[in-house]
Each structure stands twice: as structure tokens, then as C-alpha cells.
UniProtKB/TrEMBL annotation:
Lineage: Eukaryota, Metazoa, Chordata, Craniata, Vertebrata
Top EC class of this enzyme: transferase
SUPFAM superfamilies, per the entry: Cysteine proteinases, Transglutaminase, two C-terminal domains
GO molecular function: protein-glutamine gamma-glutamyltransferase activity
EC number, as in UniProt: 2.3.2.13
A Pfam family annotated for this UniProt entry: Transglut_C
Record-given protein name: protein-glutamine gamma-glutamyltransferase
Organism of provenance: Oncorhynchus mykiss (Rainbow trout)
Length: 370
């Protein structure tokens, strides 16, 4: 089985950023004021324009998607299930699998007074699998185009999931994930998992397939089997785009029961951070320095490397041409600057070259007045 690209118009983004603002909503019933979601870069248009909101966060949380503006869309952004369909020989489609926890994780904002992440998922949705969540989803589904989409009569006694260790695979190395196949029945089970991995933009759009494999799996009764899945560095090194994201699709059919297995997992290849170490006292009008260190993680040379360093109240944007950096070599740059404003400041550095993206670092500097 392979994805039908022309029927996969929906996408799941790796991340998305929007705004919340606090306002009254006299145009809505009482209780719908307070936090409102606004999104100037939504995935889809609203009445022909790329805009979204304001949508009441209270309405989103309770599934009252009939309140304006664009509440159904925001509800779907944080609550959607991923439904897998199979095309039959006669051209009709049968639902074969659903992932009910695939979307809407770690809704976050910056904590007040620090750079820590403050989790606000509970403001947008009830606890997973709670009675409140079930009621909210059922309420919203009554206003959807497929109110009967959750019927899955086929018995399922084999499951498949993909697990990732730590922060995930690192750029410049073979990408390794663990596939866990579980047999919940008291009988043996056999299947062949078809794996396909594709390069993905952060918007969920697939660029192209980089590897396909077949993995025969035989399971004893009640057995849990782990399979190490590997994507060699050479297979993806010249294929990546923006966020270095990949999508792994697994599908298969259990021979004994005809149960269909399907799941998708997206992951990013982790790039190294720039290490920034301030040196000397940070005082307005007094020169200080910061040491910036970077190690090339790739097994080949980086060409045309450029550093960009800036910090509000510390220095304007400055570009430093480094040139070529050898495989696994370390580069150290010392940046001198004179702070112009007192208080907590941030020095930000980013690396730019064709072979490697998304490399940056930040250092907090507390500048004292004279």
C-alpha cells in the first residue's frame, strides 16, 4: 500500500505559531470572552483570505464550533484525529485505522519573567480520554462533514507504533527509530510491513520519497517484537528541506485476520547548537566579548560558512565570514562588542551555509549600568 498524494490535501504541521489576545466578545453568548485565538498565517483561507479568528478559546475547548470566527478550523488544529482509508477494488474507500492522539500536543507560550515553556494545552482542550473531552469532540463532530467517521468494526489484535530515543536522530548520522509490533491475541500472527520515508516540509507537505523497504514480521502469541529501522545518511544527505523533517509511513496486513496496519511518524534530524560563552563584565559602555563555538556534525566539509551575531542593546547585526569548515572540525569565534542598554539582554548567533540549516545559539547577558 502507498499513499495517494492527490487525496492527501490535509497536512499536519511539525509546529505552528499563532497569537492569543484577551478581549470581550459581545457578539457571542456570555462566557465566550477572555482569551481569543488569532492566526495571521493559517494553513487554509477563510472566505478567500489567509486569516483566522478571533476564535474564543472557551468555545474551542468545549467543542462549540458554531461560534465565530473560524472556530471549527482552530478546533481541528488542536483536536484532529488522523484517519487512514483504503481504496477498494471498486473505487470505494474503507476506514482502516485512526490515530486519536496525533495532533495538538504541547500547546505552549513563553512563561512570564523567564524563557521557560509554559504549557497551556489545558486551556484549549480537556484531558485526553476524559468524559469532558469526549463530550467536546462529540459536540464538534455533530457539525462536521463526517459524523460517522469513527465506526471501526474490524477486530484489531495486532498494533504497530514507532518510538524514538531521546531527542531523536542527529544530522550527519544514520537515522534510527524503533518499530514495536504487538500481538494481543493467543494465536500466531504474520504480516509484512511496508515502510516508506519521505522528506517533509514543516507544513506537512511531502517533497519526495527517499527510501522504501519491506519488513516481514512473525509474531508468537502475545509477543511484543522490536525492529530497528535505519535510514542511512547517504539516503537523505542531499534531499532535506527547511526544518530537516522526515515522515515515516508504515502499512501492512495481518495474514490471518486481514487486519490492516497503518501509522505515520514525523521526526526532525537534530542539528548542533552554537555554544555562546560571555567573557568579562557586562557594563554599559564597556567592551566585552563572547566566545562562539561550533562543531561540524557532517562527514564532509561545509563550504561558505557565515556567522550572524546580534543582540538588542548589545550590538547590531554583524556578519562574519568563516569560509570552509572540515568534517567534524570545531570553529571558535570571539565577538567583541560594547553594550548600550542595561538590564537582561540576549546575544543571538546563527550559522548559514548550503549544507546545514537551523543552527543557532543564544546567551543571556545581564548588563549593569555604569
Amino acid at each position: 500500500m502507498e499513499p495517494l498524494d492527490h487525496l492527501n490535501s490535509d497536512s499536519v504541521w511539525n509546529f505552528h505559531v499563532w497569537n492569543d489576545c484577551w478581549m470581550s466578545r459581545p457578539d457571542l453568548p456570555p462566557g465566550m470572552g477572555g482569551w481569543q485565538a488569532l492566526d495571521s498565517t493559517p494553513q487554509e483561507t477563510s472566505q478567500g483570505t489567509f486569516r483566522c479568528g478571533p476564535a474564543s478559546v472557551t468555545a474551542i475547548r468545549t467543542g462549540q464550533v458554531y461560534h465565530k470566527y473560524d472556530t471549527p478550523f482552530v478546533f481541528a488544529e488542536v483536536n484532529s484525529d488522523k484517519i487512514y482509508w483504503q481504496r477498494n477494488l471498486d473505487g470505494t474507500f474503507t476506514q482502516i485505522h485512526s490515530e486519536k492522539k496525533a495532533v495538538g500536543h504541547f500547546i505552549s507560550t513563553k512563561a512570564v519573567g523567564s524563557d521557560e515553556r509554559a504549557d497551556i494545552t489545558h486551556l484549549y482542550k480537556h484531558t485526553e480520554e476524559s468524559e469532558e473531552e469526549r463530550i467536546a469532540v462529540e459536540t464538534a463532530s455533530r457539525y462536521g462533514t463526517r459524523p460517522d467517521v469513527y465506526s471501526t468494526p474490524m477486530a484489531k489484535d495486532v498494533s504497530v507504533e514507532v518510538k524514538m530515543e531521546g531527542e531523536g536522530p542527529r544530522m550527519g548520522e544514520d537515522a534510527q527509530l524503533t518499530i514495536v509490533v504487538t500481538n494481543l491475541s493467543s494465536q500466531p500472527r504474520r504480516t509484512t510491513l511496508h515502510s516508506q520515508v519521505a522528506v517533509m516540509y514543516y507544513t506537512g507537505v511531502l517533497k519526495g520519497t527517499v527510501q522504501k523497504n519491506k519488513l516481514p514480521v512473525e509474531l508468537m502469541p502475545n509477543e511484543v517484537k522490536t525492529i530497528q529501522w535505519v535510514l542511512p545518511y547517504q539516503s537523505y544527505q542531499n534531499q532535506l528541506v527547511d526544518q530537516a523533517a522526515l515522515m515515516l509511513t508504515l502499512s501492512g496486513r495481518v495474514s490471518e485476520t486481514q487486519q490492516v496496519l497503518a501509522t505515520q511518524t514525523n521526526f526532525r534530524l537534530r542539528t548542533p547548537d552554537l555554544n555562546i560563552e560571555p567573557e568579562g563584565d557586562a557594563v554599559v559602555g564597556k567592551e566585552m566579548a563572547a566566545k562562539i563555538t561550533f562543531t561540524n556534525p557532517l562527514p564532509h566539509k561545509l563550504r561558505g560558512v557565515v556567522f550572524r551575531v546580534e543582540g538588542l542593546g548589545l550590538q547590531k547585526v554583524r556578519e562574519v565570514v568563516v569560509g570552509d569548515v572540515g568534517s567534524h572540525s570545531t570553529v571558535t569565534l570571539t565577538e567583541h562588542f560594547i553594550p548600550t542598554q542595561a538590564g537582561p539582554r540576549k546575544l543571538v548567533a546563527a550559522l548559514d551555509c548550503k549544507q546545514l540549516t537551523q543552527v543557532h545559539g543564544v546567551a543571556d547577558i545581564d548588563v549593569q549600568s555604569q
